[in-house]
Amino acid sequence: MSAQNDASLFSKTNPFLARVSENRLLNNEGSAKETRHFVVDIEGSGLSYTVGDSLGVFSTNRPHEVDELLQVLGATGEELVSPAMLKLEQPITLREALTSRLALAGPTPKLLKALAEKATDAADKTKLNELVGPENKDALKPWLEQREYIDILTEFPSAKLSPQELVDLQRKLMPRLYSIASSPKISPQGVHLTVAVVRYETNGRDRVGVCSGFLADRVAVADTPVPVFVSNSHFGLPEDHADKDIIMVGPGTGIAPFRAFVQERAGNGGSGRNWVFFGDQHEATDFLYGDEWKDYVTKGDVQKLDLAWSRDQAEKVYVQDKMREGGAELWAWLEKGAIFYVCGDAKRMAKDVDRALHDLIVQHGGMSEEEAVAFVKQLKKDKRYQRDVY
Prior knowledge:
Layout: H1 3-7, E1 16-25, E2 35-41, E3 54-57, H2 63-73, E4 80-81, E5 92-93, H3 94-101, H4 109-118, H5 122-131, H6 137-145, H7 149-155, H8 163-167, E6 176-179, E7 190-196, E8 199-202, E9 205-208, H9 210-218, E10 226-231, E11 246-249, H10 256-265, E12 274-280, H11 283-286, H12 290-299, E13 304-309, H13 319-325, H14 327-335, E14 339-344, H15 349-365, H16 369-381, E15 385-389
Helix pairs in contact: 2-7, 4-5, 13-15, 14-15, 15-16
């Protein structure tokens, strides 16, 4: 943590009430995605950040979802509760707990067991006991993933919980961490974020990402206070980065920290080269910060920009395919000491990129599979292979 952050009074346990000064859509008309650029004003906080850090954002739940839960509980919201996991010194109102302290999604088998004990309707009790029965273990997880607390409480109306019983079965509403998309060299008091707004439907209900929906829909620019803190990261540039080559793989919102990296390195007079891999669905609608990237290439701040558009041709093309295409040169950069960075989706992209990296080391480095594995392990040990995946 930087000395300035040490000096700041604000932290995860005492967040700074910031204001959002900018909220703009990055996708063009016709995109299937909603990716937004936010600028969060931290002036007066004493907070500082470095490239690679994340901004933690505390959100609230949608008011109508809170009202629905209160209605199904038969509660006013003024009831005092002390959710066990919050370890509060004083009780708070049920409305406050459901609005800003507890998650309304992610129900667990414990909820179903508690409802089974409370159910007065025989059919409700039988169904609940079947759901948590050992023979239903494999099917229970996907069933729960389709539901939030409101769905289950509505589905089994004869099982009544008191406000305190409900909040003791909920999880804490956790802050969301977003990779910072700016360099303090360019924007010391305005933290830039690149946020994919999540909107979907499960179990017949419209859902939104808790924090992405909060920022997109309910935070008024320059008005609504947003509790934030800086989260320092293992992911970032070395202090002596000016003369080092770096390779950055960041499709979708994974591009955020690499925008910060290039801002930090642009015009610094060092000999280090920048190679960026970016991908998304369509070039016309989903080229996030496209004009900026083209400008960096024109100015010579980005030496190579490889773009992968998965839906612009019959055969899908991803960043790992572009890595393979440029495998000989990528290996040459690595051989000369380049640092390799990956940011974005952990479930598929990061694994596919890792596989491509191993393959090109075998192909162009003349190594066996075992030698390539050892080489990559050494890259990680030397902090020359860094990942920020989620």
